[in-house]
């Protein structure tokens, strides 16, 4: 395992993101045995950083993570949790909420604690005198219940710089969306420079962009396979995700790279990539950045679902945007089939254009415009037969 030095700690560069644990589609119950098995493997190979958040998996991520970690000594791992200031609809007892998280995580301190999703939109809550969030959380740090304080940020570089300037000395690290696509698409390169200038550590979320850089379009993946054959010797191709992780390992301020793992094979793949330093060559880096340019079609939805709760017609927005991106990549039958599988009132044409989702979206996606375009593309066809439609509906049931 590659480790980073941060303050007085030795952190595994690979952090275990606990937002995508597999669960029973019928009951929503997390598959605890699988979580335990993944943690056992990760810990055996040196992973010591585990990241959860109050709202992950309907509040069950904290519990499942704590259950898996309870089998190990508390001092052998680091827990990161987050305060959900972006989800509040009014002031609450911040300390009581913090204590709920402590209790669910079966601990009396967090090694790392973050303000969750600080953006141009949520700063009004985080910095509100009435909500009193930052002073309360700083008090928890003073009392030793938080060792290092940070925040996750989906805001733009200008916002990030201004927020850090207003809060100079309060935070120890910043978690940003960073990968070779967002290096330019979301100006993550500039954000890294800003965080470094403020002297803070960089934590990475979305290193494979919601899985999209882990399974590239065939043509792009083929370029990497070719490159591997040319430069990687006789070893097996390590996978598209490996290149995405290695791109991040090279950035000096990056201390932890979070990966939301939900299958044992993903843990195994990631552990292989993080076993030892494996810097990218200039050629590999250039090719990744060229692939990023080719991928910039459609919309950069990460399926975080921040937009979904407030949709007045209950659309599964990330699902529809996947269909949109599929259509934008190629006018194949697949996205048509996926839309066919939805009830009429859950299809893109049901969007009433209220704009709530665009307001909530950390990626600043103009969702109503994309859905209007999707509705048009879908209308034009091609369409599937009734048989295919029935099959697809069954598949959606399986995937629920
Ligand atoms: S704009 Fe459409 S998708 Fe977005 S919240 Fe409103 S109805 Fe839902
Ligand atoms: S549209 Fe935005 S808020 Fe909604 S799931 Fe996608 S990235 Fe998240």
Summarize the helix and strand pattern as letters: EEEHEHEHEHHEHEHHEHHEHHHHHHH
Summing up helix and strand content along with how strands pair, one would put the structural category as: alpha/beta
- What is the total number of structural domains? 2
Q: Enumerate the distinct ligands.
A: iron/sulfur cluster
The profile of the biggest β sheet is: 8 strands, parallel, barrel
Query: So what's the overall shape?
Result: globular
Describe the structure.
By secondary structure, this protein is an alpha/beta fold. It folds into 2 domains: 3-295, TIM Barrel (Alpha-Beta Barrel); 317-399, no CATH class. It is 44% helix and 14% strand. It has helices spanning 32-44, 60-69, 94-104, 123-126, 133-142, 157-166, 182-185, 188-197, 218-231, 240-249, 264-274, 282-295, 317-329, 334-340, 356-360, 367-380, 386-399, and strands at 3-6, 9-12, 14-17, 49-51, 78-83, 110-118, 146-153, 173-177, 201-205, 254-260. An 8-stranded parallel barrel has the order 3-4-5-6-7-8-9-10, surrounded by 5 helices. Strands 1-2 form a two-stranded antiparallel sheet. The longest helix is centred in the middle third of the chain and has 14 residues, at 218-231. The protein is globular and about 60 Å long. The model is unreliable at 385-399 (pLDDT under 50). The chain binds iron/sulfur cluster (2 copies). The site of one iron/sulfur cluster has 15 residues, from helix 15 and helix 16.
């Amino acid at each position: 395992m590659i480790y980073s030095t941060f303050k007085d700690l030795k952190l595994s560069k690979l952090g275990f993101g606990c937002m995508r644990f597999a669960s029973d589609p019928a009951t929503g119950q997390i598959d605890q045995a699988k979580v335990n098995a993944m943690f056992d493997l990760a810990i055996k190979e040196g992973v010591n950083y585990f990241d959860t958040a109050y709202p992950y998996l309907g509040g069950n991520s904290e519990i499942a993570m704590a259950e898996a970690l309870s089998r190990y000594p508390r001092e052998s791992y680091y827990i990161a949790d987050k305060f959900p200031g972006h989800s509040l609809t009014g002031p609450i007892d911040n300390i009581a909420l913090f204590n709920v998280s402590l209790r669910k995580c079966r601990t009396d301190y967090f090694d790392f604690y973050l303000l969750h999703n600080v953006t141009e939109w949520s700063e009004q809550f985080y910095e509100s005198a009435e909500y009193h969030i930052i002073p309360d959380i700083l008090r928890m740090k003073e009392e030793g219940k938080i060792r290092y304080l940070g925040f996750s940020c989906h805001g733009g570089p200008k916002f990030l710089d201004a927020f850090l300037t207003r809060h100079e000395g309060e935070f120890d690290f910043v978690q940003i969306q960073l990968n070779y696509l967002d290096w330019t698409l979301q100006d993550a390169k500039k954000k890294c420079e800003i965080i470094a200038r403020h002297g803070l550590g960089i934590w990475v979320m979305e290193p494979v962009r919601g899985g999209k850089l882990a399974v590239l379009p065939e043509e792009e993946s083929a370029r990497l396979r070719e490159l591997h054959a040319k430069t990687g010797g006789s070893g097996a191709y390590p996978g598209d995700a490996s290149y995405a992780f290695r791109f991040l390992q090279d950035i000096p301020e990056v201390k932890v790279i979070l990966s939301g793992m939900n299958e044992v094979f993903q843990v195994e793949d990631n552990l292989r990539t993080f076993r030892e330093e494996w810097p990218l060559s200039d050629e590999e880096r250039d090719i990744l950045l060229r692939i990023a340019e080719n991928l910039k079609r459609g919309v950069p939805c990460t399926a975080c679902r921040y937009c979904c709760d407030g949709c007045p017609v209950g659309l599964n927005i990330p699902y529809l945007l996947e269909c949109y991106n599929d259509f934008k990549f190629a006018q194949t039958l697949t996205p048509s089939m996926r839309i066919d599988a939805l009830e009429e009132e859950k299809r893109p044409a049901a969007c009433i254009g209220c704009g709530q989702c665009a307001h909530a979206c950390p990626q600043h996606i103009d969702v109503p415009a994309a859905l209007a375009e999707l509705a048009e593309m879908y209308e034009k066809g091609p369409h599937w037969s009734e048989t295919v439609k029935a099959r697809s509906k069954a598949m959606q049931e399986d995937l629920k």
